[in-house]
Task: structure prediction
Amino acid sequence: MPKLKTHKGASRRFHVTGSGKLMRTKQGKSHLRRKKPHQVRGQYDETIPVHGADKARIQRLLPYGV
Result:
């Protein structure tokens, strides 16, 4: 069986934890953050788990759990 290629865009956006959870960053992080409250700006630094409906689709893009 040939090797499977990792989707490079997905490998930069998602990562897999040691326990196997898929994690993602929040959207809206790149710009226009200065006008938001300090508490909201801090929330952008957290990574959150991927929704269950999207999990199978993303796992197909990351065959080796990059």
User: Anything to note?
Assistant: Residues 39 and 45 are 11 Å apart (CA to CA). The longest strand covers residues 22-25.
